[in-house]
């Protein structure tokens, strides 16, 4: 009998444990027998008035999701949710404990923020279907965050969002135990925060006369006036709303670049003989920068920051510092005079002077600056925090100099990137899945344990060139923000993708309850194209969440669907269609058009590996038979910054060839340029190559795609060497003149 009771108790605990799907994963979860039921008669007990906002958050959540609220009192002996916080101490970590038994729930934080984070775990114990009585399992949870900085960013300058959505966005952060909201308020395309001393910043700089349509360079322009701004009262309202959720709002005022909107409002802020300026209607990088040679520039920015600091109590002020072209400074007599008088070496050191001068002023007000990793160039400001976005190199360098760092690398946490190979709307490019976001480790292995202490945490960036409405923002952040929350909160040894996946399925149901728009890319069919064993074509491997549904495929548009059981070997031009069914409903489809030619599936070597930011699938990307038809910078392309590419393809046997086709990308004048030229060489032994043909013009341009075809007299060869020339530097008169150009290639055909 005792053995039977023990088995029953164990099964009950297992059943309860299956209901524990908290994200981010807590440090410790002890499942106990029994449960507690929250009903309309349950009382929220709040002894300390500072916890009142936490009680309000719970009531607002219950009302929105389940349709009822609870009474709030100072005490309750049974049927309660008790909130209790310790007096904050210097070494407090925002830890909390959560205890659920038959009488009620007790959440105790070592800070008020800790109690609030504990509430988020309670919310995730609630059922994921609506009910008037909410049964939750009896548990004891001990938890604390790994990093002190857990952030999300939102760009409201390219596209602006209503105050109501900003508040909803902050709620999303709160529900994921995030504690910093980085609010990007100024850009070339619009100035979004009211500055009373300079009203034209919003009346003129807050509006543009049109917006490009589609991915840059676009298919046209809306021709419609677009813009708006947040009043100081609205901004204060948002700051208070966030503070009630223990979230700090960090404003970003861009300088010295990304300043077209400000210069349009007040042209005297620019260098002499530059302009006329306009609030930009397209995306990219522009030469418009504040003049570093005028003291009046710094007086203006100090005035602006005075008003900004009066609105935002955050100890951190973000001043941008990224993507600031030096073109105007190089020809500006005032900037050149400043370089000479200050004993600076060049314009990079002038930027450092600019940042350090503003830092000194902001420090004098008791605040600390944050800047993108370009602020390292020319010398890092003494007390600055570096936000490392161009990979991790900037963050590593800063931490090694004993500067605090916030990691935001484009490789893993740029949520403007596509999260599916088959996006149904335009994104900026890139490819970052929820699994890739989950795999991120904010502390680089290059740092010593002592240097690692300078990594405050990380955040995801949400740039809105291609997000014009709240639903698109939600689609881009979910579920990747959920993955990032666990990266930043949970100890590395507690992280496990397979375990996270199971909890994520429950989180999807919470998104539905919230009414949030989210990507279903998790259910995507994954296709991997590999060389066939004999290198005569390719092998196509399909994968999907088979434990959740059924994966089938069809060939060349036929109606015959076959269950996928093993890889497919493809040796001729073929269209493979994959279909994934869940609960007898089609949830994803994939079409792979394989352009088989003499190079497809063959061995290929490169003289230089592609950029770590755009590695594609390595060299094989160029001979996998897949032509990137969308034009985005995703895993079907490899990228090179400022350097040429030389690829050698081994056809296996000597064959007759008469043309080579290179497929590339083209952004029409913003860093990504088509090949400057292509040279083709042939060899029978792989050592002695003879020229076969050359093309110095693009054969075809379609949207963001460019094709270069090199035709020549028929030749018999085994090895084909293709030398693709990069434009090297951006031409004068184009965005980023003088900077390195990117060369993106996605396929090389040999015919």
Report on this model:
This protein is an alpha/beta fold. It folds into four domains: 2-143, Chitobiase, domain 2 (2-Layer Sandwich), CATH 3.30.379.10; 153-514, TIM Barrel (Alpha-Beta Barrel); 525-593, no CATH class; 603-750, Jelly Rolls (Sandwich), CATH 2.60.120.1190. Helix content is 25%, strand content 29%. The chain contains 18 helices and 37 strands. The strands form eight sheets. The protein has an eight-stranded parallel β-barrel with strand order 8-9-16-17-18-19-20-21, surrounded by five helices. Strands 29, 31, 32, 33, 34, 35, 36 and 37 form an eight-stranded antiparallel sheet that branches. A hairpin with a 3-residue loop joins strand 5 and strand 6. Helix 4 runs parallel beside helix 6 and helix 8 packs across helix 11. The relative contact order is 0.08.
Quick structural overview:
This protein is an alpha/beta fold.
Number of domains: 4
CATH class value of the largest domain: Alpha Beta
Using only C-alpha atoms, the radius of gyration works out to: 29 Å
CATH superfamily of the largest domain: Glycosidases
Structural class by secondary-structure content: alpha/beta
Describe how the helices and strands are arranged:
Layout: H1 2-17, E1 28-38, E2 43-46, H2 52-66, E3 71-73, E4 80-85, E5 96-100, E6 104-109, H3 112-123, E7 134-143, E8 149-155, H4 163-175, E9 180-184, E10 186-187, E11 190-191, H5 200-203, E12 207-208, E13 212-213, E14 220-221, E15 226-227, H6 232-243, E16 248-255, H7 260-265, H8 295-311, E17 316-320, H9 327-331, H10 333-341, H11 347-364, E18 368-372, E19 385-388, H12 393-400, E20 405-407, H13 410-413, H14 434-438, H15 449-452, E21 455-460, H16 470-477, H17 480-489, H18 497-514, E22 526-531, E23 538-543, E24 550-555, E25 562-563, E26 568-570, E27 574-582, E28 585-594, E29 603-606, E30 616-619, E31 638-641, E32 645-665, E33 677-683, E34 690-695, E35 700-702, E36 705-725, E37 742-750
Helix pairs in contact: 4-6, 8-11
């Amino acid at each position: 009998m005792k053995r039977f009771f023990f088995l029953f108790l164990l099964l009950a605990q297992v059943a309860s444990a299956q209901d524990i799907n908290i994200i981010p994963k807590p440090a410790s979860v002890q499942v106990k027998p029994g449960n507690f039921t929250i009903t309309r008669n349950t009382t929220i007990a709040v002894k300390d008035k500072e916890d009142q906002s936490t009680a309000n958050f719970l009531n607002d959540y219950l009302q929105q999701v389940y349709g009822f609220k609870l009474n709030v009192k100072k005490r309750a002996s049974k049927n309660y949710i008790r909130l209790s916080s310790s007096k904050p101490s210097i070494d407090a970590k925002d830890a909390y404990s959560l205890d659920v038994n038959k009488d009620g729930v007790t959440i105790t934080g070592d800070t008020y923020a800790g109690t609030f984070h504990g509430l988020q775990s309670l919310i995730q114990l609630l059922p994921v279907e609506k009910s008037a009585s909410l049964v939750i399992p009896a548990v004891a949870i001990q938890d604390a965050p790994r990093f002190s900085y857990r952030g999300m960013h939102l760009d409201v300058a390219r596209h602006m969002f209503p105050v109501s959505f900003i508040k909803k966005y902050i709620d999303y952060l709160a529900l994921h135990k995030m504690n910093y909201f980085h609010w990007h308020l100024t850009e070339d395309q619009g100035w979004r925060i009211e500055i009373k001393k300079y009203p034209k910043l919003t009346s003129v700089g807050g509006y543009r006369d049109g917006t490009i349509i589609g991915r840059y360079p676009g298919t046209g322009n809306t021709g419609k006036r677009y813009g708006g701004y947040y009043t100081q009262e609205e901004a204060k309202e948002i700051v208070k709303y966030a503070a009630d959720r223990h979230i700090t709002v960090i404003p970003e005022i861009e300088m010295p670049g990304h300043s077209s909107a400000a210069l349009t409002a007040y042209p005297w802020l620019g260098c002499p003989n530059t302009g006329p300026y306009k609030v930009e209607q397209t995306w990219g990088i522009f030469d418009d920068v504040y003049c570093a040679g005028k003291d009046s520039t710094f007086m203006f920015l100090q005035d602006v920051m005075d008003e900004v600091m009066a609105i935002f109590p955050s100890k951190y002020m973000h001043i941008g510092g990224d993507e600031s072209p030096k073109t105007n400074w190089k020809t500006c007599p005032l900037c050149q005079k400043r370089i000479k008088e200050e004993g600076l070496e060049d314009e990079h050191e002038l930027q450092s002077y600019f940042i350090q001068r503003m830092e000194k002023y902001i420090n004098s007000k008791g605040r600390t600056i944050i800047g993108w990793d370009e602020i390292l160039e020319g010398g890092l400001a003494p007390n600055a925090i570096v936000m490392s976005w161009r990979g991790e190199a900037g963050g590593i360098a800063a931490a090694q100099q004993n500067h605090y760092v916030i990691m935001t690398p484009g490789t893993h946490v740029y949520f403007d990137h596509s999260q599916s190979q088959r996006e149904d709307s335009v994104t900026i490019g890139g490819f970052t899945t929820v699994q890739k976001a989950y795999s991120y480790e904010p502390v680089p292995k290059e740092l010593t344990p002592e240097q690692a202490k300078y990594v405050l945490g990380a955040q995801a960036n949400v740039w809105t060139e291609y997000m014009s409405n709240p639903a698109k923002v939600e689609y881009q952040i979910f579920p990747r923000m959920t993955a990032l929350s666990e990266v930043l909160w949970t100890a590395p040894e507690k992280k496990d993708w397979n375990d996270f996946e199971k909890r994520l399925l429950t989180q999807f149901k919470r998104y539905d309850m919230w009414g949030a728009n989210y990507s279903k890319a998790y259910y995507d069919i994954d296709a991997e194209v590999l060389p066939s064993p004999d290198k005569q074509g390719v092998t196509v491997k399909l994968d999907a969440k088979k434990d959740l549904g059924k994966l089938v495929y069809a060939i060349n548009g036929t109606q015959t669907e076959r269950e996928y059981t093993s890889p497919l070997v493809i040796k001729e031009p073929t269209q493979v269609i994959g279909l994934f069914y869940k609960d007898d409903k089609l949830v994803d489809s994939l079409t792979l058009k394989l352009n088989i030619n003499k190079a497809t599936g063959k061995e290929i070597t490169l003289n230089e590996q592609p950029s770590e930011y755009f590695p594609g699938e390595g060299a094989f990307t160029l001979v996998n038979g897949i032509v990137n038809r969308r034009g985005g910078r995703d895993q079907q392309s490899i990228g090179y910054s400022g350097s040429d590419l030389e690829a050698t393809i081994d056809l296996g046997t000597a064959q007759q060839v008469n043309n080579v086709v290179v497929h590339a990308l083209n952004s029409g004048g913003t860093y990504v340029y088509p090949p400057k030229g292509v040279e083709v060489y042939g060899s029978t032994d792989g050592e002695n190559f003879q020229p076969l043909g050359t093309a110095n013009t693009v054969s075809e341009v379609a949207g963001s795609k460019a094709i270069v075809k090199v035709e020549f007299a028929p030749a018999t060869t085994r090895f084909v060497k293709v030398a693709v020339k990069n434009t090297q530097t951006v031409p004068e008169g184009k965005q980023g003149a003088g900077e390195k150009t990117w060369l993106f290639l996605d396929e090389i055909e040999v015919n």
